Amino acid sequence: MSDTNEMSNTSEQRRQFLKTSVGAAAVAIAPGMLMFDMAHGKTEAVSGKVRWGMLINTANCEDCDKCVKACNKENGLSGGLSPTDSQWIRKVELKDMRTERSLALPMMCQHCAEPPCVDVCPTGASFKRADGIVLVDKHICIGCRYCMMACPYKARSFVHEPLHDQKPDVPRGKGVVESCTMCVQRIDKGLQPACAEACPNKSILFGNLNDPGSEISIKMRTEASTQVRADLGLDTGLRYQGI
Amino acid sequence: MSKLFALLAILCMCASATATEIYGMPKLDIGKGGQCVADPQWMRKNHMRVLFQQRDETVHQGMRGGKFSLKNCIECHASLRDNSVTGRADSFCEGCHSFEAVKIDCFECHSSKRSSSLVQGESK
């Protein structure tokens, strides 16, 4: 009888000891874990559950170039119009010669789901991020410009001259191809692209195409919109209204 | 005994001082300095590896704000005089790289300036 009592006492003590040590370990490790998280910031990778896109209403698009200016400012582009200057977004004017109806729209990388620039890239520099943004990894780009040839929207530019005073968030340099990044540095911070924010008429609606409840999805479901060169079957992330 | 130790200590200091003079080891302007993300000697040896790793994660997977980001390095280590890690013989990156004769490609595209200084500059 006394033996059993002793045994139960011992196991009780052991149990207590284990509980205390687990508690102490948790207290010791928790701040470390916290510090690790703080040092790492945003650790999760972008996921395919999101597909970023834009819906551009050309009916509201005025005769201004605020989106172009905002893009140039955000990404540190010169804003020059010579053949060797980079243009990530440009205003295109269309005119039906028969009816004389004219309209203007901003044209940039259409962030295709099946991007031809990615298909032709020989090094894998041109790629589509999981959330649908088409980018150039300039560390891998060799400047062959196949992607510029392949793009039906003429959206990409090649940097011909050495650059100085680049933006810390937007590294750019000579010898590689670049294009609209949908302001990926802003999207990762939870902001919307500079052009969408700058538009005085809110003609550029930015949002998640994969979320049926997002404003852009609702609008695309209820109103007519078209892809530019839909015949190519690229499933563009940018859609236009009124063209 | 304590005199012997003092003598030894002085000798060691002299030896290291002469080594610095003979080999022309770079004396770096480390900017704000302070607690780094890892041990300095380890960083001297491995900074390019961790920068490459983080670069790929950031560009391809959008994982931003990691502790080994180039922007973070520059934020702490840019000189307090010109807010840059390049441009002078004692600049944080350029000092060692010119001593070791290793070309830095980073700053052909990336900004070598402290980003907080640029934000202030813009608002002025």
Automatic annotation (TrEMBL), chain A:
<dbReference type="GO" id="GO:0051539">
    <property type="term" value="F:4 iron, 4 sulfur cluster binding"/>
</dbReference>
<dbReference type="InterPro" id="IPR050954">
    <property type="entry name" value="ET_IronSulfur_Cluster-Binding"/>
</dbReference>
<dbReference type="Pfam" id="PF13247">
    <property type="entry name" value="Fer4_11"/>
</dbReference>
<dbReference type="GO" id="GO:0046872">
    <property type="term" value="F:metal ion binding"/>
</dbReference>
<dbReference type="InterPro" id="IPR006311">
    <property type="entry name" value="TAT_signal"/>
</dbReference>
<keyword id="KW-0408">Iron</keyword>
<dbReference type="InterPro" id="IPR017900">
    <property type="entry name" value="4Fe4S_Fe_S_CS"/>
</dbReference>
<keyword id="KW-0411">Iron-sulfur</keyword>
<dbReference type="InterPro" id="IPR054822">
    <property type="entry name" value="DsrO-like"/>
</dbReference>
<feature type="domain" description="4Fe-4S ferredoxin-type">
    <location>
        <begin position="132"/>
        <end position="161"/>
    </location>
</feature>
<protein>
    <submittedName>
        <fullName>Sulfite reductase, dissimilatory-type, subunit DsrO</fullName>
    </submittedName>
</protein>
<dbReference type="InterPro" id="IPR017896">
    <property type="entry name" value="4Fe4S_Fe-S-bd"/>
</dbReference>
<keyword id="KW-0004">4Fe-4S</keyword>
<keyword id="KW-0479">Metal-binding</keyword>
